[in-house]
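Researcher: First entry.
Model:
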Amino acid sequence: MQAKPPTLFCHQYQCSLYSPTASLSLLFVLFGSFLPWRTRSSSWRSDAPVSAGDGFSFSGGKYSDEPNPSDEWFKQGKFVKAHPVDGTGDKAKDPIFGLTMGAGSQASGDVFRWFCVESRNADNPTIVLIHGFPSQAYSYRKVLPLLYKNYHAIAFDWLGFGFSDKPQPRYGFDSHWVVIAFVCPEIKYKYVSALESFVNEVAANKVSLVVQGYFSSVVKYASNHQEKLYDLILLNPPLTAKHANLPSTLSIFSNFLLGEIFSQDPLRASDKALTSCGPYAMKEDDAMVYRRPYLTSGSSGFALNAISRVMKKELKAYVEDMKVILMDKNWKVQTTVRWGQRDRWLSYDEVEDFCKNSNHKLIELPMAGHHVQEGSGEELGGIISGVISGRILT
């Protein structure tokens, strides 16, 4: 049977786990001309026999019972429980209508669940691979096989992304939502301590961190735990004043009303956000893995919307703080900046000067874009291995 794009009617009448669908569907109709519902995939269909969605996602949340790449990726991973859940203790409610969200959009009741894929030999030196915004651990799928032989490599989904828990405003991290810590590194908000909990759970000894893009605010965690780290490798991080504004592809998710709508569109939230930042032509099988969270849970879009709003507001201060940390004379962690020259979001201007002035290694990849692990995963795997083993000298 030929695949069909999900329809409004499928969403409204076939999905039952979330009650305000009809109201949100009206918003979808009003702004429907902005939403490009097109797909060639047979992995999700409007007439599929099984509904995997929470009923809020604009896609309809309907999946076929055929094998799909997202299921295969999920089978490779596991959940790690780390960091206690704070907040009101109530069921999460959507920020638009204030109605209780479906079971698929609720975080754990006691400790957060982090989805990760790792090598099995924990006796090897540990490398933690941290994806960028907006992305998933899946972005390191080409890197992991190159590290398995000599390292204990772990790629995880941030809270709010992929298969990990997606705490909502006031439901999971007190009155401050999880995203604040991404962009206010001078304040010890919950996300920094949550990352600390995760790292301590998966690695008892020292680790090396590989961090991509805007989530390089992990530098704040690193500055507080330098004794825990061997190496810090930053992949196209925002380092200069020219990096202090979100690109339009991401900032649109922060807009009033349109932000809520576009963040629920799996093609905008995954495909466009990933392919607009570099010379990427994503395969349909890979795209389906990135779309899956937005197809099955409205909480993924709400997380994206909330992160975008705070990041847009605070990114300038965050970049300044990161520069101060990395240029501090007390910074002891061996740091490498890997830069994809075809990044369409962050300019290379002044990056070389920054690395020279801060005495950090700089490795340029002329053909890579912002998410270098997406288009140059094998090359990146070799670089990571070389940097950590000390074979690469710059």
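Researcher: Second entry.
Model:
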Amino acid sequence: MINNKEAGTSSNNHRPPARESTPLLGKPEDSLSSQPKTFANVFIAVVGAGVLGLPYTFKRSGWITSLITIFSVAALTYHCMMLLIHTRKKLESPLSFSKISSFGDLGFAVCGPVGRFAVDIMIVLSQAGFCVGYLIFIGDTLANLFHSTPPNSNHFNLSEKIWGISPKSFYIWGCFPFQLGLNSIPTLTLLAPLSIFADIVDLGAMGVVIIEDVMMIVDKWPVVRAFGSFSMFFYGLGVAVYSFEGVGMALPLELEMKDKPKFGRTLGFTMFFIAVMYGSFGALGYFAFGERTKEIITANMGKGVMSMLVQLGLCVNLFFTFPLMMNPVYEVFERRCCEGRYSLWVRWVVVLGVSLVALLVPNFADFLSLVGSSTCCALGFVLPSLFHYIAFKEEMGRKGILVDVGVMVLGVFLGISGTWCSISEILSVKV
């Protein structure tokens, strides 16, 4: 039996603590999910702010390369999500672990404390990385909205200062005291509805951007590239992996589905739908602005009222999504450092660390690629295939072993190559 105390924090005497397996929509104890609700759950778990960096990635990697990468990553992510489901079913038997509800539980069941530690590290790095990306987006977007930029530039006016610091830094520090308050909330229950709001705003923003993209394409078709350099392939791969990250939610989402045998088909359809949406959004954004495509596509929308409302709405939803995404990080730190007890100082120190990293990263899309390559490859590809191999190695044939080992090797190779390319891009001087 999995030790539940090891997997959660204690913040409410009448309600179980929020943990990695907490669903985004609904509660397993209230009702199980239908296929449409499972579709919505998977969609919310996967789709996030990373989509706004896809048109810039199409510009860097080439539109054909990017489309192939998006659909390949979607297929591989689906495969690894299903590996987690198969591994959990294998281990959940009367003679072994009777309840495995999260990625961390599975790691513990397969490899003991080492397995849980590996999952914990990757979850902390990936979730904190997402939140760093949120702060970069907020800082860059507000700087773009309220401070002039040179015409046809891909970058913000870095010469202007507010109280001696850059506009981006000013807005990130402006978020800091409010995030300390929001992240002090001990339970996820009060924050979970904000995730739904965030995705509604994301979809609305995508719709507005797509409409403007189509109008720009009709007016003038810019010069675009079908393929980029070899190094840019790994750059685009990192952004794609980041955009599809959500593998940790596969186990809890399958647990709460009413018709579990249909989960694989529902998951596959959802991943395909998201891949089509990502591909369309990235290609249209690049086709509309060509080489003028900026790191955050909404920055290409100009200074109109609609553009300002869309960008401010995205900033607001990411601002309130920040504590929701940080909750798994606090769960890990409080479980390991405070014996599962709520700790205000731990949360504030983590928020400070995330804010400091956001101040040091110059580019939103480059950072998406770095997080996708360095942590999401390990969390999404390497660990699921490793756990599956360990659980099934005694009964798998040569083909199954080759597939698992192949995914592990591919994940490690892509992670190392993508991380190297992303760091090179971040450290390079952009003209």
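Model: Note on the second entry: The mean pLDDT is 79.
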